[in-house]
Recover the amino acids of this structure.
């Protein structure tokens, strides 16, 4: 544990920011824990057809539900404005949060890639067995655990003075010895946890939509709408966090006495707690999205409405694959007929 002399370095030094953060995290906990548990229960206990999309949604709900259960520690931290859980929990909790960020965007990316394969290469879908999907997801989790290590290394407890109460408090904050540490950690988070995955996602959707416009299959299937909603929601909630990451990285390139650096540091110090807690909302937003997507089933199926939604997603995937195979075969026949007529 080290000592800190600058109150502005603390993520809980701003009363206004911590108050907003506490309110957001409380809302997240109340919505996210039961919501994600309901998704897991619906898929495991009530869903008859488990498509690749459904399996990915199950993993996403497990990751979100687990991290939502841990928000109670951050609520207490922000409310008391001092860390009472010790150094191990300081490192461990922030490590798990960082891993959840990567897991969420990687799972969403896998959903988008699968949709692209289903539309562009339907004849290859038989190669994507449950065994293959399981191996890919396991590999993804290993990658997530490895790439989140910087958040474990660059985190420790510090003692700082609380000038408002003429006392001191313990904070769990980033520990960057050199400016390169700041640039490395936050650039890694933003590039590998946001920019690159979103580039893949956008590419997948552009290719998918282009293919759909070239074929007779123009119907927007349920799974495509659902995945697109998940992608957009994740981006909305995580974009401010990554903007603050880049603000903090940019500040490290200026001289310590620079006015520009002072301004950038003031921005990220005042906004870090709010944007971090705002990002947590993405983990409780998915159950709400699924509820709206499956609202047509609620009256008829009751608590089984979400299972019916996922069964419908699996069925729409299968029908889309059949239609795309039919379209591909039709296009091939047309090519053969044109070639025959030419010769």
């Amino acid at each position: 544990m080290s000592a800190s002399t600058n109150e502005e370095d603390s993520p809980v030094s701003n009363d206004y920011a911590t108050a907003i953060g506490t309110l957001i995290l409380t809302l997240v906990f109340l919505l996210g824990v039961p919501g994600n548990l309901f998704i897991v229960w619906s898929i495991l206990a009530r869903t008859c057809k488990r498509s690749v999309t459904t399996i990915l949604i199950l993993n996403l709900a497990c990751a979100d539900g687990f991290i939502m259960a841990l928000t109670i520690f951050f609520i207490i931290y922000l409310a008391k404005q001092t860390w009472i859980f010790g150094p191990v929990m300081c490192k461990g909790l922030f490590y798990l949060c960082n891993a959840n960020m990567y897991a969420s965007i990687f799972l969403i990316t896998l959903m988008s890639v699968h949709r692209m394969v289903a539309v562009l290469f339907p004849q290859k879908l038989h190669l994507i067995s449950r065994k293959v999907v399981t191996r890919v997801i396991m590999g993804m989790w290993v990658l997530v655990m490895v790439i989140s290590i910087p958040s474990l290394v660059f985190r420790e407890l510090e003692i700082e003075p609380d000038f408002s109460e003429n006392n001191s408090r313990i904070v769990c904050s980033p520990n960057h010895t050199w400016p390169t540490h700041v640039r490395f950690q936050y650039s890694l988070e933003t590039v590998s946890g946001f920019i690159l995955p979103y580039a893949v996602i956008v590419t997948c959707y552009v290719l998918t939509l282009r293919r759909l416009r070239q074929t007779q299959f123009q119907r927007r299937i349920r799974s495509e709408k659902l995945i697109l909603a998940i992608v957009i929601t994740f981006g909305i909630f995580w974009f401010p966090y990554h903007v603050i990451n880049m603000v903090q990285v940019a500040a490290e390139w200026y001289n310590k006495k620079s006015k520009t650096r002072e301004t950038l540091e003031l921005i990220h110090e005042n906004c870090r707690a709010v944007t971090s807690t705002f990002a947590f909302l993405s983990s409780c937003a998915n159950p709400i999205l699924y509820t709206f997507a499956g609202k047509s089933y609620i009256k008829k199926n009751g608590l089984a409405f979400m299972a019916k939604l996922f069964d419908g997603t699996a069925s729409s995937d299968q029908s889309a694959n059949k239609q795309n195979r039919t379209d591909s075969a039709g296009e091939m026949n047309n090519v053969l007929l044109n070639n025959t007529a030419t010769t």
Q: What stands out?
A: The domain at 2-335 is CATH 1.20.1070.10 (Rhopdopsin 7-helix transmembrane proteins). DSSP finds eleven helices and three strands in the chain. The two ends are 82 Å apart (CA to CA).
